[in-house]
Amino acid sequence: MKQALKKTLLLVFRILISLGLIGWILLKVDRRELADSLRSIDLRYLAAAFMAYLIVNALCTWRWQILLAARGIKAGYWRLFRYFLNGLFFGNFLPTTVGGDLARAYLVIDDCNKKSEALASVLVDRFIGLFGVIVTGIIGLILVAKTGEELSLLKVMVIVIAAALLFVILFLNKSLVKKFHWMLKLPLIEKAEHHLIDFYHSLYAYRTHKKEVFWAFVQSLMVQLFVVFTAYFIALSLNITISIIPFFLYMPVIGAVSMIPLSVNGWGLQEGAFIVFFGRAGLSHSQALSLGFVYHLVAVGISLLGGLLWLIYGSRKKQKKTCA
Fold first, then answer.
1. Is 289 exposed, middle or buried (CB count within 10 Å of its CB: 0-12, 13-18, 19+)?
2. How far apart are CA 16 and CA 263, in angstroms?
3. pLDDT digits over 163-220, tens only?
């Protein structure tokens, strides 16, 4: 009962944060300019943005399929694409993006009956995707760095990526990890000891699949390229004159900001981030807000396809498969 109340209060708090941020942003922009920008949207470029974002999710599915196949989970691409869009739908309409990750992990369990492998594939997929975001951000910084402030940010991002690599190296050192085995005997954790050990071994197994992990990383870079295309097409649809180069820097950062679990699915946070960062590229507050708002709507629109597929296929009994 207390846990349910806590979750409800947290959800209400996030809703209030989103509404507060959106209200505050609207007070700071020229609402007439914003309305004019949205009314004059070019549907041809908007359709191109929808297609680019659909390709983003198609590439993410391919990356996930590569990681699953490395562990002997031979799920078909179309099935995984449905799972991924289902997860995207739940991620957009549940309080956190983690809900989407858990949803697709739960769905793929039906294809292999191994919960630890399913969870590990999603976690590794998420981590490699984040790694691609950071690398794309570094490339963007190199392209646009002109001031000492941007060069300082570049140094910070390089440090972050080095720290992430160090963490992975240490995490994959079984001798080191065994020294922390005592933590599994702590209250509450002890009951899940077997599952946590099984989960760790599933993660550790990817250490022997360097080729698959490398290609998954290449897919992550392709994903970020089409994220940039999506946002750039939206800018064109809004008649915003801007170079594509700043998008390589700002879109990865905005993506990271929108994942901070303070608001509901990034609403308010993401739009504020568009204003802050694209303001540095010369856009007015109204232009940056319209760009962020339409980008968010495109993402939600694609996720609705996942909801439709869930209505069509989600309730059907799936044929069980056995993992190799």
1. buried
2. 8
3. 766 766 665 566 655 555 545 555 545 444 444 555 455 556 666 677 888 888 888 8
